Amino acid sequence: MESDENFGELLRQWCGLFITVHDKRVYFLHQTAREFLLPVAVCLSDPTITRTWAHTLDICQAHAVLAESCTVYLSLRTKKDVVTELLDYSAENWASHFREANVENTALISLALRICNPNSTHYTAWSEIYRARHFLPQNATNLILASFFGHKRVVQILLDTGEVDVNTKDKYGQTPLSWAARQGHEAVVRILLDTNKVDVDSKDRFGQTPLSFAAGRGYETVVRMLLDTGKIDINSKNKYGRTPLSFAAEKGHETVVRMLLNTDKIDVDSKDQYGQTPLSYAAKNGHEAVIEALASSNRP
């Protein structure tokens, strides 16, 4: 086996100016390389194109290959294993590859369920590595984890068993819907809402609701889905007195602000425990379009 340093140099020699190696990672040297490899609509429909490499790289399939490699590898690991670079990479990236691949393979989904069982040694092996670099819900169920990562097929399978609590909460009181909304996973939010069993206004330990999370992060589609349930307390406050409108205004999410303003019973001038209104937060951060929207809503 070549050392990392020697392999990196060999790779550069093989690929010439096509790639660069930095900090043990391989990158295309220029954006045009990516454009050359990725498929485009005009090329996919053009029967005259016969080049071997041009526009042949399917990103979804690439994620699927990596998702399978990582998931299979992690399903064979236990807590006592020595941490290798492959284990390190798999632990940190398997979930994103799995999500981007839109995995439908039942065998692979079964493996994902195995490594996302919080009571298994497989889960412990990768979650400790992941948590060292990223946030991961604590005291989470497999449904919470699948919702957190945006694994829609896994979420659907778990719900289909009829054996999971759709409103289960983690250590900080967040539900599967809370996490899906917070992460902007639209498909998972839709699946959970379609059960007609979720508490759409569930509050965590800090009083945050799914709408608060989605509004604060500017996830317009998620906000619309939540509002369309007709079960949302639009003026729900967290423990500090802040509303979804307050969070959206603070971050300058104009479209979300206007969506909230168009609802009935919205309290535009709601004050938090510090006496701050949505307009105060928008002004503090210089969000002119949001300031105008809020000011206009108060005009007769």
From TrEMBL:
PROSITE patterns: ANK_REP_REGION (PS50297), ANK_REPEAT (PS50088). It comes from the Eukaryota. Pfam families: Ank_2, Ank_4. Keywords: ANK repeat, Repeat. InterPro entries: Ankyrin_rpt, Ankyrin_rpt-contain_sf. The keyword Repeat applies. ANK repeats lie at residues 172-194, 206-230, 240-262, 274-300. This is Uncharacterized protein. It comes from Pyricularia grisea (Crabgrass-specific blast fungus).
